[in-house]
Amino acid sequence: MNSLTLHSPAKINLRLEILGKRNDGYHEIRTIIQKISFYDDVTLKVSTQKGIKVKVDNPAIPADNKNLAYKAAFLLMEDQKISAGVSIHIKKKIPAGAGLGGGSSNAATTLQGLNRIFKLNLKDKYLQQFSMSLGADVPFFLSGSGTALATGIGEKLKPLKLQKKLWFLLILPDFSISTSWAYNTYSRYNILTKRKKNIKIKNSIRTFDGVVSLLLNDFESIVIPLYPEIKTIKNNLIRAGAAGSLLSGSGSSVFGVFSNKEDTKKALTKLPYQAVHKALIVHSL
Fold it and tell me: Does 124 qualify as catalytic in the annotation?
């Protein structure tokens, strides 16, 4: 096998709590992460030329060693002593700075693809441990679970299982939000304490109403004052029929949650005209 194309899915956060700041500068979080049916495509090819070449069909995304897919390939090829060259072509649909984990997903997909192309037979657990240095979301994208409870800095994963497929209207605003800015701002303006919330996550995801009751994102407290459009989008989704609406990650994307595809389609027709072209219908994976 000399080439391989794989889907690289986005994620949303059904719940995101920032519990405290650690001595190493990272933040302790508790979040429920959900893969969704919104993808980049990553094509990997073995090259006769040495080194790693990345091509991204979005000029806003770096195509050099700053790209997470490049970093993933470099680390794995060094670790496994692979001397062949590799080209990585990323067909981008997932925007950067949207809280959808596109870069982390591309890195995870690159590791999975190289594992297959070079027949390395590395276990998922090995790749997850290996990928932690690339970013807290990367191990989740390497997991076989569509839904997971993530703690620590996001690297400690506990697989969860939705009882029923969830549907979402995903809104992609025309601005991005820096994750580092969001964490730094949250630390500056909020007292971070170890909050003990007695929430039975497993029980809560057994029903649609239970999932809706879990929706919470601590970042909204600092993102919405600076980006009031987020609040407008949330209100529009609720008025259109969403059972709940939430910022994903540190933003800027916002989703509304629905129990079925038909209601999601109806809601799309009820959104204000300017919002429709920024909306996608997606579902849980």
Answer: no
